[in-house]
Amino acid sequence: MAGYLTYLKRRFSWHTLRRVGLALAAPVSALVFAAIVSVIILSVTGHSPADAAQQMADSLERPRTFANSLNNATTYYLSAVAVAIGFKMRLFNIGVDGQYRIAAMLSAALAGAAFMENLPSFLRVAMTIIVAMLVGAVWAGIAGILKVTRGVSEVISTIMLNAVATAVVAFLLNPSRLAVPIGGSNNIGTPPITEGGRVSGIPYPGSTSTVFGLSILAVAVGVGYWYLLSRTRFGFDLKATGLSESAAVASGVNVKKMVVASMVLSGAVAGLVGVPQLLGSSHTYALDFPAGLGFTGIAIALLGRNHPVGMAIAAILWGVLDQTSNSLDITGVPKEIVVIMQGVIVLSVVIAYELVRRYRLRLEQRDVGAALGTTKTPAPAEVTT
Amino acid sequence: MELLGITKRFPGVIANSDVNVAVRPGTVHALVGENGAGKSTLMKILYGMQRPDEGSIEIDGKAATFHSPADAIAAGIGMVHQHFMLADNLTVLENVVLGSEPRSGGRLDFKAARGKIRDISGRYGLGVEPDRLVDELGVGDRQRVEILKVLYRGARILILDEPTAVLVPQEVDELFGNLRELKAEGLTILFISHKLDEVLSVADDITVMRRGTTVASVAPRETTARQLAELMVGSALPVPELRESTVTDVPVIEVDGLTVNTPDGRAVLEDLSFTIHAGEVLGIAGVEGNGQAELVEALMGIRSLDSGRIFLRDKEISKLSTRDRRDAGMAYIPEDRHRQGVLLEATLWENRILGHQTKAPSVRGVLINRGGARKDTRRIVEEYDVRTPGIDVAVGSLSGGNQQKLIVGREMSGNPVLLIASHPTRGVDVGAQAAIWEHIRRARAEHLAVLLISADLDELIGMSDSLSVILRGRLVASYDPKTVTPEELGSAMTGAGEGAA
């Protein structure tokens, strides 16, 4: 009991407060800075920043906007986790974009295939998800294997694999192969997924839009990511390798194995990025399937500092900014101002995090000094003869 | 130069309080003290990296205020850091001019710089060749390049931070020769060291620091190393020494014909064979860079063998991974703790898990056992006297000595059968050194086999049951630590004298 009390005391001490404050300092100051830049740009270009902000705030009050923001956030979050798994190992998986597109396309083809019709709904959805993860894992795994066997930088190989993925998707998405024409348009896509293969949305009060049913998948991935990193040996090895490869090697980590494993894992999560959209709303992988989500994931992983909760907040923020920006055009403010704001956030948060990191280190060293300066005097040297 | 009543406070702690040092021009002044005695803070103040809260610095009787190292350099103060700051793939010339490149008409004037370097080198007898690649230079040469670098920038007062830590006795003698020349030319040298014999041989005045303040100023002629050490720690002094032999006839590790080549096929370790028995400490003496690092990494499975075999308790481990070797009972205190020993940005308890990712109490199956790891970290902090406010602070904020104690404590846990200890007491203070020795002695009595690599010859001689010398990747001589002198070892290490069998 007493132990628990001291535990509570420690949890809610001034130090905890300071820790939380420091953790928030960087993202908050980046947001403030980005807001200032946006205000300046709007003022200079003859728009009223106050009106624009009011417009965005008003639009957020509409339930539909918020439901759509959550849907955006779901995909962004999955993408960010995929990137963060790499980041934790100091691997830069720029290929999330290609990984999710090829995964979404192939899993859409499977989910829409005729033979799936007779399977139970649960099995169909599960198979779609698993295939998407497998495809993403394989695609990212190529970069991992190239890195450990040939020393190819994963930055280069994943960028190139993005281009290859684009080409492969374009090749397969052809009426003579996996695609069918979509009625009423000149668009083509994979055969539509029928009712049993879809995941129905969660109704959002006051809105015709529903929240993706698979947003719970994003939550599960977040929890899994947290558990893996903080509770498992694998996660420890992963973090250790990211913090110091040489120390990890000396501790017995097989770094090559870890590189491949983390790329595969990152790719598996990347494979999920398109799935909530696919099974919740599009029901087909067509030419107009959202692209570029992999890059948004990088921004969100940076802003959320690879932290499962931080990235969730960042993903929701991004989703809200995206959705509310639609309302700006009505007042004649170019909605690209939000893209500028997002860009400034990412750039400034990277700098802010580094500044806070240094400050925190100095603070902690000072703490150690303070704590030791007030403890007992150094014990006299042991004399052993 | 004079430091008067320097006081530097960090919130809650006084790093320096009322420090008074008077350095006579044209002398070698030694500053000695344990780690944490405040020497580095004082150096930082003197070199303009920090500003004192109270007190003043006077140079030639004039008060000086430094806002940055650039101010200190301008005032003629130069610093030779303990860790060399040289770019290996540049020449001596390029390294020296780096940051203060000589220009003439927008172009780099290497010719003038080369002349100036030759001139300085000749004047102080440094023997530095401007066009050699730093990569090709030995440790002693690199140090002379560092000294030349500060002289090139016009320093009249040189601060040398533990300059002998990386040198063998012969190189130390050369360094001291250089220092005497510098002194003869009217330069002033502030020399920071742990090694009291050296301080006594080279210094004209000695100032002792303890717990942030100057406790004594003594003349080397009127004191002994023991008295100095006792001033430093405020009590009696530990000696590296083994008691009765605990060597058994059970071989723990047998190395047979171990050979490691560089990627281009040059042998860095050639046909090494040795056996360490349970309860035996085998010391390896050698000038740094003669294959010690490769030997340690080959034994730990970090570097693969080109030929030869290693047996641990009669089981061949030559092909096993580092993790399997650790699981088989090998423990490892690395030479460079920041590179291989700790995760600086991780907490103490997370660092407790490092290297023990497969062993209780750090893990349970595939999961991390946080409670177990934390509890055992507290035990290490307690038993090994790691000075820290808690186990949740980042290891990087502890002092080097405390980091080392944590590593030693960690590696000693889980009852290892073989400890590979590379410079286990490098950079730790006298108290910690004694404690680490004592832990090694105790484990040895419980049949631990130890491979000890150290640059501190007293430590090697005192702590080893048998001694071998490594030179250019080969074990060239064996000595009985009971009879060998540091001088004999030193000459075998440099290949000067052919060692006795």
UniProtKB/TrEMBL annotation, chain A:
The chain crosses the membrane at residues 20-46, 66-87, 99-116, 122-143, 155-173, 210-229, 259-279, 337-356. Keywords: Cell membrane, Membrane, Sugar transport, Transmembrane, Transmembrane helix, Transport. It is found in: Cell membrane. It is a multi-pass membrane protein. Its main location: membrane. It comes from Herbihabitans rhizosphaerae. This is Simple sugar transport system permease protein. It holds the Pfam family BPD_transp_2. Coiled coil: none annotated. It comes from the Bacteria. Signal peptide: none annotated.
Automatic annotation (TrEMBL), chain B:
Pfam families: ABC_tran. It comes from the Bacteria. Residues 1-236, 253-497 form the ABC transporter domain. GO terms for molecular function: ATP binding; ATP hydrolysis activity. The keyword Cell membrane applies. Keywords: ATP-binding, Cell membrane, Membrane, Nucleotide-binding, Repeat, Translocase, Transport. GO terms for cellular component: plasma membrane. Its main location: membrane. InterPro entries: AAA+_ATPase, ABC_carbohydrate_import_ATPase, ABC_transporter-like_ATP-bd, ABC_transporter-like_CS, P-loop_NTPase. It is a peripheral membrane protein. It is found in: Cell membrane. Gene3D superfamilies: P-loop containing nucleotide triphosphate hydrolases (3.40.50.300). This is Nucleoside ABC transporter ATP-binding protein. It comes from Herbihabitans rhizosphaerae.
